[in-house]
Amino acid sequence: MPLNFVLFLGALLFCAGLYTVITKKNTIMVLVGVELMLNAANVNLVAFSRFDAVGIQGQVFALFVITVAAAEAAIGLALVVKVYQHFQTANIDEINELKG
Question: What is its EC number (predicted)?
């Protein structure tokens, strides 16, 4: 598989994630968009690492990114649950108070 195809796929995933983050009002969908952008970065890391004949640095770095993304998703979802319990909504526009 040529490198250009894989990089185009990564760019497409990143653009889809960015579009989701910018346009969606639901906090869960914003987290999904961030995860899409992180996965696009992982696709690019693995694609560039495939063409490095010596090492596997791209795959190792992608594993670290996956680990950090899993922790980010867990913490983000916990925050969304607590915000939903307090405000009774997951809409970003309706959450405008910082004090409770």
Answer: 7.1.1.-
The whole-angstrom separation of Cα 16 and Cα 23 is 11
CA separation, residue 13 to residues 8, 52, 61, 71, 72 (Å): 9, 23, 19, 21, 19
Torsion of CA 78, 80, 82, 84, to 10 degrees: -150
Report how far residue 69's alpha carbon sits from residue 77's, in angstroms, rounded to the nearest whole number: 12
The larger pLDDT score, comparing residue 58 to residue 52, is at 58
Q: CATH number for the domain including 66?
A: 1.10.287.3510
Please state the pTM of the whole predicted model: 0.83
- Supply angle C-alpha 14, 32, 71, rounded to 5: 105
* Strand (E) or helix (H) holding 86: helix 57-87
